[in-house]
Design brief:
With 479 residues, the chain is an alpha/beta fold. 33% of the residues lie in helices and 23% in strands. The protein contains 14 helices and 24 strands. A 5-stranded parallel beta sheet has the order 3-2-1-7-19, covered by helices on one side. A 5-stranded antiparallel beta sheet has the order 20-21-24-23-22, with helices on both faces. The longest helix is centred in the N-terminal third of the chain and has 18 residues, at 84-101. It is globular, with a radius of gyration of 26 Å. 39% of the residues are buried.
Amino acid sequence: MAVDYDLVIIGNTPAGFYAAAKAASLKARVALIAPEPLVNAGAHSKALTQISRTAQQMRAAHQFGIYCDTDEQISAAPQISVKLNEAMQWCAGIVSNLEAQQSPAVLASLGVDFIAGAGQFYPKPQLGFEVKDRRLRARAYLLATGTLSAIPDIDGLAATGYLTAETISQFANIKPQPQNLMVIGAEPTAIELAQTFVRLGKTVTLAVRSPYILPKEDPEAAQLIQAQLEAEGVRILTKTEVTQAKSIDGKKWVQAGNQAIEVDEILLAAGEQPNLDSLNLESVGVKWHLRGIELSEKLQTTNPRIFACGYNLAHLGNYEADIALKNALFLPVFKADYHGIPCGIFSDPQLARVGISEAQARSQYGKDVLVLRQYLKTIAGAQMLGETTGLCKIIVRGNGEILGASIVAPNAGELIYPIALAMRQKIKVEKLKLPAIWPSLSEITENTAAEWSRQRLSRNERLQDFLEGLFNWRRGRFK
C-alpha cells in the first residue's frame, strides 16, 4: 500500500525543525506535526541569565575604576536596579525572533508540510499517525517532542503552585512581585536559575539532596561553582530533601529537611522527563519510561519504523536528527557516537565537560592516569577581564590519550571545543600545546596541556638522571 510521506516528524523542538528541513533538502516528502509555534523551551531562561550577567558586570565595574555615580569618591559597588517587566519583554523578543526563524512559512518555503496540532499513533490496519481527523501514513516516523520539567513527588506541591523553566516567563506577571525564592533541584537549570535570580536582586535558597551541587560533574569543578553561588548570596542547603509544600495565609511554606521555610515562589528544576504522554506509543510497541525512550545505537525505538532524537541529551538534538534521518530514509546502519561530545552549564563562570571524570578514569585505568590542572588566575587574559575564578582540568593516560576534561571559566563552552575535537579525532594531549593568542583565555588549554610533559618527566627518574648528567658533562667541557 502506498504511503503519504517518506517521513513524518512529530515535535515542536529545534531538532524537529532541523530534521524536517534536512529531510526536505534530500528531496524526501516530509510532514512536521507540532503545536504552533515551534519553540526552544530553554531560550527564555537563557536570555534572562544573560540579563543577570550584564547586571553583575555593572556591579563589578568599580574594580576597573568605573562608577555609575556622579560622586567619584564613592568606592562601594553601585546599586543596580533591574526592571523585571522590561527584562522579560527583552527575553520575549529573543524568543519571538527564534520562533520566526522556524515559522510555518519558513517550513513551507523549504518544502515541508507543516500540520499544526496534536495527534497520536494508531496501529491498525497499518501503522500511521492521526492528527485533526487526518490519518497520515509514512515509511518512517521521527519523534522530536523533547522533554518537560520533571515534577517531584512533594506533598502539597500542586496545590501550592510553582514555576518551571517552561513557565518562567510568567514570573513578571505575579503580583506582588516575589522577592524570596526557593529553587528545588541539583540539575544545571536549578543552578542557572538560582544565580540568575540572586543577581536580579531576589533572595534565593537552593535545596539539593546531594552533598554538593551538580553531582554528575567533577567535584572540584562543581565546588568552584558552588562557592561562587554562595559568594553571590545564594543560600545552598545540601543533603536536603523537600518533602512538603503548603500555602498558609497567602504565603508559601516549604519543608526542607528539618526546616520550614517561608517563600514567595517555588522554582522547580529537578530534572526532565519525555514529553510523550499523549502519543499512544504503547499501542504501536514503543517502550519508554520517565528516564527516556528505549533506543538502539541507531536511534530506533522498539518499533523499528519509529525513530527518536533529542531526549537523553537535548543539546545533541541536531546530531541525533542527522543519524536518525539517514537510518529512517535510507538503510538503518548508522550509529550514534557520543565520544568526545561536550556538554555545558550556563552558570557564571560556565562549566563545560567532555569525556569521563577523574574517578571514572582511575577506576578503568588505575595508575595509568595523569591529571593535568591549571587555574584561571594564572592567565593574563583572565586577570585583565577580572575573571579569575576557574580552572582547566584534563584527564589523560600516560601515553597522552585524552580521557576527559572539565573547564570552569567564562565562555567555557567555547574553550572546551578544541579538547573535545582532539578526543573525537584521537589526537594526543601534546598536540594541544599550540601557542594561544596573548592575552586570551585559550592560554589555559595550552598551559594545561603543557603539564603532560612536566608530569611525564617527573615520573621518569632515569630520564631525569640522564639529563642532569648530560648538562653536568657539558658544563664541565665548556671553556
